[in-house]
Amino acid sequence: MAYSDTGPYYSTGYGQASNAGEVPPTTTATKPHVCARCGRQYAHARGLIRHRKQCEGRYDITCLVCGKMFTRTDKYKQHMNNKHPEAVVTM
């Protein structure tokens, strides 16, 4: 059986030549969690909670090497691994 992207699981039509440039509709029904400050929409409450820290300017984590500020620990760790690998302590 050959691979096909036209089967019943690919029936939205988005990305087809006739629909070039169209974007699938996004409604508050699919993304009910909305930021009161900027209007950004999220499908899950955890996404909105994470976004609020940045939107409100609450940068709780500061890089001790360069002073860059972060709202998320995972982004701080990524920064340390990429920008200051000599300062990263592994256990």
General description of the model:
It is a single chain. With 91 residues, this protein is an alpha+beta fold. It is built from two helices and four strands; from the N terminus they run ββαββα. A two-stranded antiparallel sheet has the order 1-2. A two-stranded antiparallel sheet has the order 3-4. A hairpin with a 6-residue loop joins strand 3 (61-62) and strand 4. The radius of gyration is 20 Å and the shape is elongated. The model has no long low-confidence stretch (mean pLDDT 82).
What's the SSE blueprint?
Layout: E1 33-34, E2 41-42, H1 45-55, E3 61-62, E4 69-70, H2 73-83
Antiparallel strand pairs: 1-2, 3-4
Largest sheet: 2 strands, antiparallel
Radius of gyration: 20 Å
Strand content: 5-15%
The level of helicity is 10-25%
The helix count comes to 2
Principal-axis shape equals elongated
Looking across the biggest beta sheet, what order are the strands in? 1-2
- Number of DSSP strand runs: 4
Query: Termini, distance in Å?
Result: 49 Å
Domain C2H2-type: 61-84
Pfam families: zf-C2H2
Keywords: Metal-binding, Zinc, Zinc-finger
InterPro entries: Znf_C2H2_sf (IPR036236), Znf_C2H2_type (IPR013087)
What is this entry, summarized?
This is C2H2-type domain-containing protein. With 91 residues, the protein is α+β, with helices and mostly antiparallel strands. Helix content is 24%, strand content 9%.
